[in-house]
Design goal:
The chain is mainly α. 84% of the residues lie in helices and 0% in strands. Helix 3 runs antiparallel to helix 4. The longest helix has 38 residues.
Length: 128
């Protein structure tokens, strides 16, 4: 009876990732089948391109490191205060680590411009 809890924990660690992979596979499979069925009825290639653009889930804009860095900083502050108030110095150290990772990410967002407008502005400033 004592071995059931560890076995259940190990089983959950295996079952959950496998079920997520299966779910994503089925979702993608049905989406591709839908696109195929719709494309059979379309004669215009422009409509087909627009359809593929609708189903395309990839982001068109680059990642904003400044936003991600700010979020990471505040997650680090939250972890730090959780350790400060109740759980101890180890969690304070982890909070500081996460906060400094956020500061580095935010600094990278300011050093490397990521939108086309910022890149154009940086090039124009460099040319002057």
């Amino acid at each position: 009876m004592e071995i059931l809890i560890p076995l259940a924990g190990i089983s959950v660690g295996i079952i959950v990732p496998l079920s997520v992979f299966y779910w994503q596979y089925n979702e993608t499979k049905h989406k591709n089948e839908t696109i195929l069925e719709i494309s059979k009825t379309l004669d215009d290639p422009a409509k087909l391109e627009r359809l593929l653009g609708i189903f395309d889930e990839r982001k068109k804009e680059p990642v904003d490191y400044r936003r991600g860095g700010l979020i990471t900083i505040f997650v680090g502050v939250g972890i730090y205060f959780l350790g400060f108030v109740s759980l101890g110095s180890v969690l304070e150290g982890i909070g500081l680590l996460v906060g400094f990772i956020g500061i580095g990410t935010m600094a990278a967002g300011y050093i490397y411009p990521n939108t086309s407008e910022e890149i154009t502005k940086a090039v124009e400033e460099f040319e002057e």
